[in-house]
C-alpha cells in the first residue's frame, strides 16, 4: 500500500508540472477502457509464450495479444515476426544451421530463420528466449515452447475460468500479403480456428492488421453474424504505407489514413484504430511530451475507438517527463503510471502495455 501511495503521489506531481500543451481531455468512446497484454506480459516473461499470457491474465489484462505467423505446414503460431533468430534458440540447433537465409519481407531484407521454413513439429523443438536481453531478465530463456493459436485459445479459456470472467484475444495477422504469396493465406485459417473453439465463438476477439485489404476481406466474411469479433486497423508511422497498398502500387499512407476523411473510410470496415502513442501526443525534439494532436477527437467523431501501442515500463521507452534517474534501463513503475494517465485523460479506449499490472493500476488510481 505504501508503494502504491508513493506512485500515486509521483503521478500527481508529474501531472501538476506538465505543460498545458501536453494535456488533453476527451471522453472515451468505449463504455470501459481495456488493458491489452501486449504479447502477454513481456516485461516479466518471454513474449508470446503461454507463461507470458498467463502472467498477463493474472495481472488483470482484459485481452492478450498473439502475433500470428505461419509454419511450413500451415499452422498459425505466435511470434512477433516470422524471423525467429532473436526470439528463440534456433541458432543453437546445428540441425537447422543451413536454414539461415536472407529474405525480403514487406520490402525489407531480413537475415535469419523463418517460421515458414519449419514444420510445427520442428518449431516445437525450439525454446523461446528474451527479445530484449539488454533490458529484461533472461532467466526464463529455454523454458517455453512456441505456442499455436489453438493452444493459446485453450489456455486463455482455462485461465478465464480461473479468474472468473472472459479474457479477450486480440490476434494480429503479421505480413498477410507475404504469406498469401507463399500460398499460406492467414485470414480464412484464422476464422476457421476461431470457429473451431467454443470459447472464441462467444468470447471477445479483435483481429488486427497493419494491412487494409485483409481487414476489408474479413469484414465481408464476418458480416453481422459474429458480434463477438471486432476489427482493428493498426497504424504505422505517418510517412509509411500499408504493404498491401505498396504491393498494389498505391499512394495511400498511414498519415493519409489518420486524416478525418481517412478515418471515416476506416470506419467502413473496422471498429477501432491502433496508432503509436506518439500519433496522439507527439514527442518534442528533446523527448518530452508535446502538444496533443486532434486524433482522439477525430477518430471518435468517425465512430472509431483508439487502442494505441505500446506502454513499456523502462525509462528508455517513456517520455522524458516521466523518467526516474538517468539510466535508460531503469524499471520505472511510477513513470509508466503517470504516462498512461496522460493518455487516459486524452480519451483512449484501450491500450497495449508490456506490464498489464501497471496498466490495471493506472485505471484504478484515476
Structure description:
By secondary structure, the protein is α/β, with parallel strands linked by helices. The chain is built from 13 helices and 13 strands. It has one domain: TIM Barrel, CATH 3.20.20.190. It has helices at residues 2-17, 50-58, 120-123, 149-163, 176-181, 187-196, 213-222, 243-247, 254-257, 260-266, 295-301, 333-345, 356-364; strands at residues 34-37, 63-64, 67-70, 76-78, 101-105, 108-112, 168-169, 172-173, 205-209, 229-234, 272-274, 305-306, 350-353. The strands form 4 sheets. Strands 7-2-1-13 form a 4-stranded parallel beta sheet, with helices on one face. It has a 4-stranded parallel beta sheet with strand order 9-10-11-12, covered by helices on one side. It has a 3-stranded mixed beta sheet with strand order 4-3-8, covered by helices on one side. Helix 1 (2-17) crosses helix 12 (333-345), helix 2 packs parallel to helix 4 and helix 12 (333-345) crosses helix 13.
Topology (SSEs and partners):
Elements: H1 2-17, E1 34-37, H2 50-58, E2 63-64, E3 67-70, E4 76-78, E5 101-105, E6 108-112, H3 120-123, H4 149-163, E7 168-169, E8 172-173, H5 176-181, H6 187-196, E9 205-209, H7 213-222, E10 229-234, H8 243-247, H9 254-257, H10 260-266, E11 272-274, H11 295-301, E12 305-306, H12 333-345, E13 350-353, H13 356-364
Parallel strand pairs: 1-2, 1-13, 2-7, 3-8, 9-10, 10-11, 11-12
Antiparallel strand pairs: 3-4, 5-6
